[in-house]
Prior knowledge:
Layout (H helix, E strand, L loop, with lengths): L2 H12 L2 H11 L4 E5 L4 E4 H17 L7 E5 L4 H12 L3 E4 L6 H11 L3 E5 L3 H10 L6 E5 L8 E2 H6 L17 E7 L7 E6 H14 L7 E4 L6 H5 L3 H7 L2 E3 L6 H11 L3 E4 L1 H14 L8 E4 L6 H10 L4 E7 L3 E6 L13 E2 L4 E5 L21 E6 L12 H7 E2 L2 E10 L5 E6 L4 E3 L2 E3 L1 H10 L3 E11 L3 E10 L7 H9 L12 E4 L13 H13 L6
Parallel strand pairs: 1-11, 3-4, 3-5, 5-6, 6-7, 10-11, 10-12, 12-13, 13-14, 25-26
Antiparallel strand pairs: 1-2, 8-9, 14-15, 15-16, 17-18, 18-20, 19-20, 20-21, 22-23, 24-25
Helix pairs in contact: 3-4, 5-6, 8-10, 11-12, 12-13
Amino acid sequence: MDRKDFFKETFEADFTYINGFMRNVRRYGDCPAVFSPARGMELSYSELNSAVNQLANALLGCGLGKGDTVMYMLHNSIEFVICYLAPQKIGAVNCPVNYYLSAGELALNIEDSCPKVFVYENSFSDTVHTALGISSFKPSVILSVGGCAPEGHVSFDEFIGREADTEPVFSWKLGMYDECTRLYTSGTTSRPKGVPLYSVNEVLSAHDVIMHFPLGHNDRTMNMTPWFHRGGLHSGGPCPTLYAGGEVVVMREFNAGLTLQYTQDHRISFLIGVPAVLSLLCRVQQQTKADLGSLKGIVTMGAPLDRESCTRFMQVLTPRIFNGYGTTETFWNTFLRPEDLPEHAGSCGRACTDDDVRVVRVYPDRCADPDDMVRKDGVETGEIIISSPAKSSLHYMGNDELTDKRFRNGFFYTGDIATWDKDSFITLVARKDDMIVSSGENIYPAQVESVLMEYPDVADACVVGLHDQLREQVVVAYVVPRDGSDFSLKDLMRFVNGHQMLAAYKRPKYYRVCDHLPHTPTGKLQRAIVREQVLSDFETGQLHR
């Protein structure tokens, strides 16, 4: 075999995420890999690998093969880590889903991915039961974590407990181009958008974090956000930490007091969360004065940091604050390091090492070419586009139409409007698609509006975001009652809050009933006008909850 061909074959077969994890099993077998303080449970790399092998062998035993999907709906937990790794052992796809989803939304995800195995936490049993009843696809095996498994479902512990912890044996080959992880990102409609990630994407996402923190095998990380997010899984979550040989500390759900206590007691190196979470940490830290001396940094994602907040975080928590900007499709792609702050607070930072991030002109009838960039003067606005092939598969699963729209010329067109300056620092100005960001969750007004319009007494609706100190934004619904109807705002709220296609975090916090909404002569809703008046309506008490 030619030396070049030998290298190519070896590289493509061996440069996989699961091989990186196994190197650490051999190197750091007795060192801690994952620790749950709430459960008092810690697994070494060898112990974690044994549990992963048990699940992998159980999956093989029920007929899973290469490319099959394991979907799981779990809080941050040791079981989450096992479900992340075990499918990769046998070439299957691990697919974490948002546990805030409504039953209807979850059913759509199940129908989209057709998982042979579905794993869920017992606390989500009502949502899962309803979703499985709605879904046209039924997983072959349904595993329940915690508590007694309902009839027809199997206890997760029992499922893996009877299996050997030896390395799984199968006939097919694994490689770096195999899909190993699938994430879902919300969209402008109820149709789920599956983002496939190849094994090489997992490896290079881990590498990106390892070099930007930097992250090493002596570090302990704790991501305060859910791991089902790209930022949760890949920014200081299981993906980079286990690849680096460090220890993942589990925070099931965010709690400011526990975060500070865990950081002090367990000497955590890196905390990861959204700016709204850091605001809560500041408030509690000013009272508790926890010892945060072990911190090498706090990394935020999901929203820009304003200068005032950044300065407060640096004074109260740690001077080493990081801020990243990116998407589910491409991970993080611009970064602010501690040396950039607070001077460049408010911006998204500059492109990450392996990424090419540009701001291009916006045209009403077409996408700009990648070289058609706006001036680097901090004034002219354009759309942010991202070239990040190391961390992106450059497509959506089974959605060629949307892929062709968003991925062009090797770039992902984000729909975010920004400026950039002579030093390539990018500042977000607006969201082209009107997306609302609440506590790090993306909410698309069109989906909420479609639910409002289902109510028979609503003639027109508009959803916008209102700035909120803790959540970044909350959802506000403007509704126009149908002529001649017996409209009741309380009944509308009851309808929305019980709707199966709308997760709780997407529900409006405030409503305003009005006579009409602004539209263009062609009938297009002028959301920008409503957005401009929402703060005034809030301050004058015209919003109801």
